[in-house]
Design a protein that fits this description.
By secondary structure, this protein is α/β, with parallel strands linked by helices. 42% of the residues lie in helices and 14% in strands. Strands 3-2-1-4-5-7-6 form a seven-stranded mixed β-sheet, with helices on both faces. Helix 3 links the parallel strand 2 and strand 3.
């Protein structure tokens, strides 16, 4: 199967993991195996890689590209199952965990997956190709819930207008395709706003995708598992693509690095709390050269945390 995806911040991310030749590493979003391939190049013959992905298309490609390597265990699952899978494999701790969040180029470019407002297809957006679809969200959510996800997940200031328009139109006919939805969104936004700020459907499509796949909730609920499955000096490296994801990651990493919680006026520490982690660096952004070669990398941010005890 053809699975085109240019890995963002490839060397920067694998460098951040500080690969040990005999270490155990987890790629939570293996996709086209770009980052995993580089991890394997740096691992010795006794190293191990656990390669997760929830997309059946990706799993097929992962098996073709790296599944033959005896160091690789391919896991068809969302990374929210990380702790359970490691327990099943008898792994107590790992040396590194990475995740490249968001949608792969393959998912965006394969029109029938229904992620893009640039191609006409049935509304889908399911990374796992199972469960509730974008069509279900658009046609069954209440106006209040549509407003909430457009506002909270898309940071769309015209959320209520767009939600009201969707509800009114679907009373006449079910909304079925990506271009149909994109046109409804565009018409609900004031003309002056449509002329600036990129495609008018971008924020709402992001919001629906996040809702369909539960991306933010799964990330929020799994970050502790990612960090606390590390051994000492193990690292978590995560690439985010929008402010909502980055805020969650930044806040969690800061929590792991926080020590004393005594009130500022306390002359000496009495809580005895010391940090569990440290930040090897603040963040890494793609270079101008990478953005030129791969414009989709423009919004990427890499953050990393190391466990110190």
């Amino acid at each position: 199967m053809e699975f085109s995806h240019v890995s963002v911040l490839l060397n920067e991310t694998v460098d951040a993991l500080n690969i040990k030749p005999d270490g155990i590493y987890v790629d939570c979003t293996t996709g086209g195996a770009g980052h995993s391939g580089e991890i394997l190049r740096r691992l010795g013959e006794n190293g191990r890689l656990i390669a997760f992905d929830q997309d059946p298309d990706a799993i097929e490609v992962i098996k073709e590209r790296i599944g033959h390597d005896k160091r690789v265990t391919v896991v068809h699952s969302n990374f929210s199952e990380l702790r359970s899978v490691l327990n099943q494999l008898g792994i107590d701790s790992v040396d590194g965990v990475m995740a490249d969040l968001g949608v792969s180029s393959h998912q965006f470019d394969k029109a029938e997956r229904g992620f893009s407002y640039n191609n006409d297809a049935v509304l889908d957006m399911r990374m796992s190709q199972q469960g509730m679809s974008a069509k279900d969200v658009v046609n069954t959510y209440s106006e209040r819930d549509l407003t909430r996800i457009f506002r909270d997940y898309g940071e769309e200031k015209f959320a209520s207008r767009i939600a009201r328009s969707i509800v009114n139109i679907r009373q006449e006919k079910e909304i079925e395709t990506t271009l149909e939805l994109a046109e409804i969104i565009k018409n609900a936004i004031p003309a002056a706003t449509r002329r600036s700020g990129g495609h008018p459907a971008k924020r709402c499509f992001q919001a629906i995708r996040l809702e369909v796949n539960g991306e933010l909730e799964k990330l929020q609920n799994t970050l502790d598992d990612m960090f606390y499955c590390l051994g000492k000096e193990g690292r978590v490296a995560i690439i985010t693509f929008h402010s909502l994801e980055d805020r969650i990651v930044k806040k969690a990493f800061a929590k792991y690095c926080k020590g004393c919680e005594c009130p500022p006026q306390t002359p000496i520490c009495i809580c005895g709390k010391t940090p569990d982690g440290k930040l090897p660096f603040k963040k890494v952004l793609p270079s101008e050269r990478e953005i030129e070669v791969n414009p989709r990398s423009r919004s990427a941010t890499l953050r990393c945390v190391e466990r110190i005890k």
